[in-house]
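#struct-help
A.M.: can someone run this one for me? Single chain, 243 residues.
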Amino acid sequence: MTTVQRILSGFLRTGSSALIGVAAAISATVLPARAQTPGGDAATLMVGAWELSNSDRDKTCGIAFRLDATGPGRALDFDKSCAEMFPETRAVVAWTMGKDAALRLVDSKGKAVLEFIEVENGLFEPLHPGATLYFLQTAAAAQGRQYTADQMFGDWTFVRGSNRQICQVSLLDVAADPESFALTLKPGCDNLVATFGLKGWRMDRGLLLLLSDRNDPWRFQEGDPGVWHRIPEGRQPLLLTRP
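D.P.: on it. Structure tokens below:
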């Protein structure tokens, strides 16, 4: 590991935006230019399971954000409890995220029913002062399963179908660039993984992101303990498990 990689790895572990900014400045003079990660927009990062709650968290319900288009925005799914816990959600049919970075849950005419702004990584509060105090956070954070990079280092196995192992990957404790760690694939990987162009990984809002030079990142969310599901699943689910 080079000196710069050691520095970057330490900054990535801390998660400090200030330190990462310093790392970026250091790497700009030492590391080659890095292509921007495709699909890194705020809307894409919303995909997955979230929890809506009131200020006391005695009322909660699950929301799954999706990217497919529907009506005036993108699709989402509410748990059955949402309509009872939060009657406003009965009118919600889609969600949007505009240039102002505000997350809006909208009705069939595109009118905002609930509006949020991100105040911390993966935590949203009402956009407007005086609005009903609801919070939105990732399901992983709400359930105390917000993993750090330290908990993810090591060997993992890609699994498809009926427990068919198709590739092994090592998530390394070595910085690939100021925003991600490096990884290595073991020989004999299935074409699905081999052609994806994996170049690094990082944690974001409780999700494991596997990054590619030429494709949108693969996003994995933990289901059962130690079993991570690619989201959205698609026709052929892809899992990551510990060997």
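A.M.: thanks! The CA atoms of residues 147 and 206 lie 6 Å apart.
D.P.: also worth noting: The helical segments are 3-14, 17-30, 42-45, 82-85, 139-142, 191-194.
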